[in-house]
Amino acid sequence: MTRDEILDPTALPRRTVLAGAIAAGGAALATAASAAETPGVLAGKVAIVTGGTSGIGAVTAAALARAGAKVAFNGRREALGREVEARIRREGGDVAYTRADVRDAAQMERFVAGTLARWGRLDIAFNNAGIDLPPAPIADTDIAGFDDQVATNLRGVFVAMKYELPHLARAKGAMINMASIGGRHAFPNIVAYGATKAAVIHMTRAAAQEYGREVRINALAPGAIETPMLERVRRDWQVTTEQLVAPYPMRRAGTPEEVAAVVVFLASDAASYVSGHVIGIDGGDLT
């Protein structure tokens, strides 16, 4: 299938959309938005966000703080991390940035331990850190780049889960892992990214089975979200936003704030019976 065919909604198979499913999806989004807008809905909770120095991670760290949580976040880019930390503190949030790389297990173990030392508990984990690389056919994919995506997007989530889950289990907490629409559907020229995100979905479902009585564990599968990553996609693919979102019934890209609202919902008691699911944040895409 060519790139043009991928971007042409008429060339993609579609499922029949039932009115009941649409209504249920609308209700879920309304609940998520309501939870995110409720001050104090996460009061007394402690949250970790990986990859919180920009994009969805930074916006979600701020949203969790506004909802009342104490927030620890990490990332490799210290200058950006300090900017995000200062911004959230100016808004009144209780937040702490740590320079830590999800690819380094020792750094992640110290990051989680530092959060526990600072606040004494862990209730919420949003494992968001991830990278992408310019698209290329499999035969032209750089092996070092492939390995880096696996180390960040897959192993990094696993390492975070490993160190977070014992503390989340004690708190009867919630974990949200960042997958992607690319982990649910196969797209050409992004084999490493898609494979890592599909594996995150599997790890999420497996962990939800293992820890079902102690931790609610879900994954997110965003479509096109207005972030620096989407800017790179437009540049590398030489496409417009309109072309990218053509398969989406809503015909628009999402915002980091819309993703953050779902994270707050899943972290809150409003989602007390939701676990083991992959939540699409994709403008209704059912291709």
Produce a short descriptive summary.
This protein is α/β, with parallel strands linked by helices. The chain has one domain: Rossmann fold, CATH 3.40.50. It is built from 10 helices and 7 strands.
Radius of gyration: 18 Å
Find the count of extended strands (DSSP E, 2+ residues): 7
- Counting H and I runs of at least 4 residues, what is the number of helices? 10
**CATH architecture classification:** 3-Layer(aba) Sandwich
Mean pLDDT: 88
* Biggest sheet overview: 7 strands, parallel
For the record, the count of structural domains works out to 1
In what range is the share of β-strand residues? 5-15%
Strand order of the largest sheet: 3-2-1-4-5-6-7
At the third CATH level, what is the topology name?
Answer: Rossmann fold
Annotated CATH homologous superfamily: NAD(P)-binding Rossmann-like Domain
Report the order of strands and helices: HHEHEHEHEHEHEHHHE
- The low-pLDDT segments are 1-30
Structural class: alpha/beta
| General form | globular
CATH class: Alpha Beta
Helix content: 40-55%
What is the terminal-to-terminal distance? Answer: 15 Å
Descriptive keywords:
287 residues, Rossmann fold, 7-stranded parallel beta sheet, disordered N terminus
